[in-house]
Amino acid sequence: MSTAELGVAAYLDFVEREYLAGYIAGGGASVKLLCPADDEVRGRLASAFPELGNGYAYAEVDAVSTRIHLIDQVFTAVARQMDWVGLADAVVRSSLDLAGFPAPAGADGIDLAVIARHHDVDAAELYRSVRRAIERLVLRDAEMSHEFRVAMLRLCQERLGRGDVTLRERETVIGWLQGERLPAADLRGVGLNTKVNRYNARPLLLSLTRWLRVAGRTGLVLRLDLDRLAVTRRPPVGLRDGFYYAKAATLDAYELVRQLIDAIDEIAGLFVAVQVPTVLVHDEARGLPSYTALQMRVTDEVRDRRRQNPYAALVRLGAEATEVS
Fold it and tell me: Residue-wise over 135-150: b if at least 16 C-beta within 10 A, else e?
């Protein structure tokens, strides 16, 4: 007897209702392994996930184009999909509200001279007030790593337009977040001493979920596509596309997912959908059974083959519109 599957549309409605609209928005986090039945279901997931959630940022990382077993590569792939300037803009506006000088309604950009005239105050005094508010909002938030706070402070300072941080320095900060190779002198100039690496990438990812909420976003929806891990042999040179994974790298990818699952109590506002092909659910050689630490977290020894549990950590999805109760 084959294992029951949930309809992909019904399951995504369930995720929206039971997770994104309530639990995740309220500060929770969840990691789900989704096993699509075929290519049609994979396509539906890929097209539907960016539209899920109200106010969420969305990012996807595909094992074909990103070394998905390396946490620093995952973070920089996510960073390349974030609107860092827009997020900093939102935080500066919140700081203006906190300082008691909100931007005029309908104002497109942040012009301190215009805001000062609107409130009939000295522009220099307004600048000092909002800068102190930004520093309180950013630098004192212990839920974000020190490096991340420094980077976000620089982005916010650039938005003030007073010359504390230049456009070039802003691009240095964004390039650092996105994993670009930058001169050490440029990094030191903005207060950053190390590149994104395997040691600081996980704290940076957790900091990002916090920063999104500080900037007024609901949270982050992240889709990790592990389909490529099922390819056991690389094709001939002329037919290769992207990255391929030896068993050791595949196990490292499972370890990364395991670490995300174990860290959910430390994260606020994150929903991770890990897409795995059916073959990896059962394959003893390089599938989930080959990495017990992850398998024990996502599979149940006792399972009703006629009915899927939508709350389960591992959910099998089919094309049929099976209702989720």
Answer: eebbeeeebbbebbbb
